[in-house]
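sry for the spam today, last one i promise. C-alpha cells for design, 149 residues
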C-alpha cells in the first residue's frame, strides 16, 4: 500500500513540474534552445582565448561556423505578435522591429567575420580576440535594449 501511495505522489509531482515548463516546439521554446546553444558555443570560444579551455584551432574554427549558423536562426522564432508567455524579451522587440532586426543583422555580420578570421592560420589570439569581442558586444547590445534581466 505504501508503494502505491508513493507512486501516486511521485506521479503527481512529475505532472505538476511539467506544467511550468516551456513547450519546446513553441516559438519561445525554439528560440530559447537556440540562444542556449549560442551561449554554450560562444563561451567555449571565449574560454579558449582566455585560457579556461585549452586552445584547439580546428575546434575553434568549427565553433565559429556553428555560432555563425546559429546566429541566423532565433529571429524566425519571434512571432509578429508577442505571445503570452514568460519570455525574457521586452515588448520593445515587437514595438521597435526595425531596431531589433538591425541588431540581429549586426550579430550575424560579427559571427560571419569570426568565421573568416578563424580560417587564417596560424591562429593568433591577437586576430581572434577582437572578432570574439565583436560578437560578444553584438549580443550585449541586443540584450541591453531588448531583454528583461
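last one done:
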Amino acid at each position: 500500500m505504501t508503494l502505491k501511495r508513493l507512486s501516486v505522489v511521485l506521479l503527481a509531482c512529475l505532472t505538476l513540474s511539467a506544467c511550468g515548463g516551456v513547450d519546446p516546439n513553441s516559438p519561445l521554446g525554439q528560440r530559447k534552445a537556440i540562444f542556449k546553444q549560442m551561449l554554450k558555443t560562444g563561451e567555449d570560444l571565449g574560454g579558449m582565448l582566455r585560457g579556461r579551455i585549452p586552445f584547439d584551432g580546428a575546434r575553434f574554427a568549427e565553433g565559429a561556423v556553428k555560432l555563425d549558423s546559429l546566429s541566423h536562426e532565433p529571429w524566425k522564432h519571434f512571432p509578429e505578435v508577442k505571445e503570452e508567455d514568460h519570455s525574457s524579451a521586452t515588448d520593445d522587440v515587437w514595438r521597435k522591429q526595425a531596431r531589433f532586426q538591425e541588431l540581429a543583422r549586426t550579430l550575424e555580420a560579427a559571427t560571419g567575420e569570426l568565421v573568416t578570421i578563424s580560417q587564417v592560420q596560424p591562429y593568433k589570439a591577437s586576430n581572434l580576440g577582437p572578432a570574439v569581442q565583436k560578437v560578444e558586444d553584438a549580443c550585449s547590445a541586443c540584450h541591453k535594449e531588448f531583454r528583461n534581466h
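Helices lie at 2-19, 27-50, 57-71, 92-95, 97-118, 125-146. ok im logging off now
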